[in-house]
Design a protein that fits this description.
- The structure holds two protein chains of two kinds.
- By secondary structure, chain A is an alpha+beta fold.
- Chain A has two helices and six strands; from the N terminus they run ααββββββ.
- Chain A has helices at 2-17, 22-25, and strands at residues 30-34, 38-42, 46-49, 54-58, 63-76, 80-92.
- Chain A has a six-stranded antiparallel beta sheet, with no helix packed on it.
- In chain A, a hairpin with a 3-residue loop joins strand 5 (63-76) and strand 6.
- Chain A is elongated.
- Among the domains of chain B are: 2-83, 2-Layer Sandwich (Alpha-Beta Plaits), CATH 3.30.70; 111-177, Roll (Ubiquitin-like (UB roll)), CATH 3.10.20.310; 281-334, no CATH class.
- Chain B is 25% helix and 46% strand.
- The radius of gyration of chain B is 45 Å and the shape is elongated.
- Classes of the chains: A alpha+beta, B alpha+beta.
């Protein structure tokens, strides 16, 4: 676990040094927000909790917390998910 | 909208997941590629989601893995709707029979429409087409439309063009009528103009040939009025009396005043029908032009009867008739009884008929005056018409071939 964490960190730094896309090279989560109604996330690691006002998504090293009202998990597969609703905040932890 | 339509077509199942960590099921479904949507988080330990019909089973098995209870809450979509009929065997058999009937019946001709005819009747054309194999109930794929059209056209001299187009169960027959050829006079045929009735000549126009009578002469039926044998006069100072005769086709009109007498008779007693009140009805079904009698070979026991037929044809709302008809034949027995005929009515009838016969014989001529005389004798009413007319009495009568030699003599 520790070795894999180190490897991820190395890939992350390599991507940064060589100016390569981190989501492709290191598999880092990529979040795309369209206005305040739609949030698309790639390379997620699963849903941690779900509710109308708050959805927590695992991004590997970090947890993405989406806050808002009337949030809905529109679609989800192994690599990406789509959340719709009135999004007020996206917080990383 | 498109996605919703696809979901309706492939079917979806609403699942309720209850467990300590229901979000694990969502993550597993996402990893396994099970599509889900419309996630509704009811409580921290309970959620609802919708999956496809195919994904329902795997999602339930995954639920067991993550120690969640997965229960289906509802099913919707076309596959579930159709599955309701899975055990309704009669419906399925009916559906299969209906489809078979549609597939089989659509191979047969149900209607034949004829367009473009005016003087040649539709019935004539349909009868000829039926003779050539194209009729209601004919097997469409077995028909050679071009060949049928060609053969029918050969037997219908009133048509110049005919085309048969098959549109599924409908046969469209387009026709063009032949232009009537004008009546031609055979100039090589020699002959005379002969009187077809006796009378006094009031006018004579000989266009070809030699007039034998003049205005005011009396002629009898059969007299040669304009002769086809023309006597050629000899030149002046010639020793010969004439140069012989030249045979031509006599042409011209001869008008005469004629007197005609026509007679007609009618019995003063006529047989009339007296219905006995006995009736017998028989039914028949006509399907694809084939008649099925429901009365077998049973005969009618009445010696004399009237047959009244009534047919009910299956008609679509647009007015198109289907090849299915039910016929009722009612036979009403009667006996013949003799009844007196009203004299005045009989006389009026005979006078009318005589006048019609006179008009027909006079043709384009004129009836100057007509008088009727009636007499009753031996149970017969006899009416005599006497009329004075002016009419064209000339009639062309061809000569015998033996007379042709005279023409050669005249030429020499």
């Amino acid at each position: 676990m520790d070795r894999s964490g180190k490897k991820e960190g190395l890939l992350e730094k390599t991507a940064e040094v060589f100016d390569l896309p981190g989501d492709v090279v290191a598999g880092l989560p990529r979040i795309e927000l369209t206005g305040s109604r739609e949030l698309r996330m790639e390379n997620h690691k699963g849903i941690l909790s779900y509710g109308d006002d708050e959805i927590h998504i695992s991004g590997g090293k970090l947890v993405v917390k989406v806050r808002g009202a009337g949030l809905e998990l529109k679609s989800m597969n192994a690599s990406q998910l789509l959340i719709t609703g009135a999004i007020r905040a996206v917080e990383l932890e | 909208m498109l996605k919703r339509l696809i979901n309706v077509l492939r079917g979806s199942v609403r699942l309720e997941v209850t467990g300590a960590f229901p979000e694990r099921l969502l993550n597993l479904c996402a990893q396994k590629g099970i599509q889900f949507w419309n996630v509704e988080w009811l409580e921290p330990t309970r959620l609802r989601l919708t999956v496809t019909r195919q994904g329902s089973g795997p999602a339930r098995r995954l639920g067991e893995k993550v120690q969640c209870t997965v229960t289906p809450e509802g099913r919707s979509g076309v596959p579930f709707f159709l599955a309701r009929f899975r055990r309704r065997y009669a419906l399925l058999v009916g559906l299969a029979l209906s489809l078979t009937a549609v597939c089989v019946l659509s191979q047969f001709i149900l209607t034949v429409e004829v367009e473009g005819n005016q003087s040649v009747t539709t019935a004539e054309i349909l009868t000829e087409l039926r003779r050539q194999g194209l009729g209601v109930g004919a097997y469409g794929p077995g028909l050679d439309a071009d060949e049928v059209g060609r053969r029918a056209l050969m037997n219908l001299p009133g048509l110049s063009w005919l085309s048969v187009n098959l549109h599924g169960t409908r046969a469209e027959v387009l026709v063009r009528e032949a232009v009537e050829t004008p009546e031609s006079v055979d100039g090589t045929e020699l002959g005379d103009i002969v009187a077809r009735a006796s009378g006094i000549i009031t006018g004579i126009d000989a266009l070809s040939g030699e007039a034998r009578f003049a205005v005011g002469d009396t002629v009898v039926e059969g007299d040669v009025l304009i002769s086809g044998s023309v006597i050629l006069d000899a030149p002046m100072y010639s020793e010969r009396e004439n140069l012989g005769t030249m045979e031509v086709r006599a042409q011209g009109q001869v008008y005469a005043r004629t007197w005609r007498t026509l007679t007609a008779a009618l019995p003063l007693e006529a047989p009339v029908k007296a219905y006995t009140g006995e009736e017998h009805s028989r039914w028949a079904l006509t399907l694809f032009g084939r008649r099925i009698d429901f009365f077998g070979k049973s005969g009618i026991s009445f010696p004399e009867y009237d047959k009244i037929s009534r047919t009910w044809t299956l008609t679509l709302p647009g007015g198109r008739e289907m090849p299915l008809a039910l016929t009722r034949e009612t036979c009403r027995a009667y006996t013949l009884e003799s009844a007196p005929v009203e004299t005045e009515a009989a006389r009026a009838l005979l006078e009318e008929e005589l006048l019609a016969a006179l008009r027909e014989s006079v043709g384009e001529g004129e009836i100057l005056n007509a008088s009727f005389a009636a007499a009753e004798r031996d149970g017969l009413l006899t009416v005599t018409l006497q009329a004075e007319c002016t009419e064209e009495i000339g009639r062309f009568v061809p000569r015998e071939h033996a007379d042709f030699t005279q023409e050669n003599e005249a030429d020499s």
